[in-house]
Each structure stands twice: as structure tokens, then as C-alpha cells.
């Protein structure tokens, strides 16, 4: 359920654009990209993913995953295998929230494949968070296009295979997942307090 007036107040102040949910791309963002992977044993989280997810949970920020898995539509991997891979990643990272997958081939003309925003909006809806209070973190240009189309803040975390033109076009770029999450939390007074704890609060005000 969406609520357009769910912006919080901190110490009586209105806090606009608070990040209340962070959505992630899967391959190349949360885990090392193994093209059309159907084998849970080949799931390897990126180095800073465990810390990034831990930090979000500690701050009470909801998470979800939105992933294009055209290998299903191409007949290279089954939906069952993709589910098994997702379950392994979810277990390794301590819980990712809803994992939404587009199973269609690129030429299927579906409405859900990124850069279309449909699955990002569906994930926000599942979490009960207004899209304007969500951020989307991904590793390629179509992730950033999907974020923009969903009116979400987009953060690009490039990998060595991310094209330079996509990095140049991104509104926000972070060198790794933990830095991306840190920035998303650090911009927000409410979650900053949650992250550093009450003791540090008076010293910074
Ligand atoms: Mg990716
Ligand atoms: Zn689709």
C-alpha cells in the first residue's frame, strides 16, 4: 500500500526524500555476474555486500531485489534454477526481502524487463514504501534508466565490464556497494541517527 504523505519527521522537522527502501540489481551488483547461472554453488556475493546489507538492516531500511533473468526466456536456465540461486544469495546475505524477476527474453516485448520501471514499482509496493522514498542500486545503464523511469534515486556501482559511457551518464556513482549504501544512509538524518546511535547524536548537533 502506498502512502504519498509518509515522509517522516525528525525532531519535529519535515525530512523530504528520506531513503526508506533500497532496491538492488542482482548480477554484478549483489553477486559476481555468472551469466545465466542456474547453480547455487556458483553464487558469490560481492566483497562489500554482507556489510552493506547489515548496515541497511541496522538502520531499519527495507530491501528488495529486481533482476532481469532472460536466461529463462531463452531456455538456458529454468525458473526453478533461478529461484534456487536467489535463495542461496538471500541466505548468504542474511535476507534480501522480495526478489522480483523478469523471466522474459529481450525481444519478448514484456513490460517488466529493465529499463522498464514496472518491477521496481512493484517492489516498492510490496514493501509499502512510496517510490520517491526508494533508491535503486545497479551496475549498468539500464538499471539507472529503470530507476529514473520509476522516479527513484539511482546509484551506479560499476564493475570492470560497465561501459564508460554508462558511468559518465550516471547521476550518482559509488566505487562499491558499501559506499553506495553509506551515502544513501548518510544523506538521511533519521537513518544516520539509527546508524551511529544516540550517543554520537549530541556531539554532532
Ligand atoms: Mg547487473
Ligand atoms: Zn519481463
TrEMBL record:
Matches recorded under InterPro entries: HAD-like_sf, HAD-SF_hydro_IIIA, HAD_sf, Heptose_bisP_phosphatase, Histidinol-phos
Molecular-function annotations in GO: metal ion binding; phosphatase activity
Gene3D superfamilies: HAD superfamily/HAD-like
Superkingdom assignment: Bacteria
Pfam families the UniProt entry points to: Hydrolase_like (PF13242)
Cellular component GO terms held in the UniProt record: cytoplasm
Keyword Cell membrane carried by entry: no
GO term, biological process aspect, one: carbohydrate metabolic process
Keyword vocabulary terms for this entry: Carbohydrate metabolism, Cytoplasm, Hydrolase, Metal-binding
Annotated compartments: Cytoplasm
Family of this protein: Belongs to the GmhB family.
Record protein name field: D,D-heptose 1,7-bisphosphate phosphatase
